[in-house]
Amino acid sequence: MTFLYSLNCAQLNPPIPAIQAATYCLVLDTQQGLALVDCGYSTQDFLNPPLIVRLFTWLMRTPRNPQTCTLNQLATHEINPSMVQHIILTHMHIDHAGGIADFPWATVHVHCQEYEAARHHRGRVGIGYVRKQWQQHQHWAFYENPDCEWFGWPAITLPLTPTILLIPTPGHTPGHCMVAIKQQSNCWLLQTGSAAYPFYLPAEQYPVHPPVWLQRWGMGGYVQSLKKLWFEHRDQITFTSGHEFVKRH
Predict the structure, then answer these.
(1) What are the helix and strand counts (H, E) for the chain?
(2) CATH class (in words) of the domain with range 3-247
(3) Tens digits of per-residue pLDDT, 44-94?
(4) What dihedral do alpha carbons 244, 231, 158, 129 form, nearest 10°?
């Protein structure tokens, strides 16, 4: 089995509007060691937060509790952090890439356009990058050109087993990618990152449906195509996203 855990590494509770969300880190078991899909904040982000982290966590009413960081949550599942050998990023905003600092030995897999955007604070939300979180990291694997297709979407194969794919979806950030993870029985887990909202959740979970203009501006305009993918292949693909905003009730 590839998928092990989905960890909530930072709760978002903005006062306006009345919504809430997790910040998800997926823990995967591969033949090359454990892999994380996104990694939340680092322990130092909460113990000694940079200005942007302080501002964003205040706006989102995120408790800066180091015990919620991926590094410490692994211990609660009796996982030695040294088993994490790979970090796969949907993008490099502060709440998705900060945890890199807690795993200095791990190889970080990311689209090259995303890395360059993060280095130079490019994109619609360029302020969301903090180089201090990862600029000392030594182990990187960069990707650019698709080498296969996944349900009609151009994709990039990572050097991991079972199959894990980056699916370029620039929009939320210049090098944003979804991550598709091969499961048993030819099924897949799709981490849409910030390319979609949780339209796939049942109504009783109160998923937030943002206006179309916000979907296009903030997510890159992929929602309708992803809805079609989900409708046609939901027996094969399990969807998740980076945050899954739902209404607070």
Answers:
(1) 7, 14
(2) alpha beta
(3) 999 999 999 999 999 999 999 999 999 999 999 999 999 999 999 999 999
(4) -30
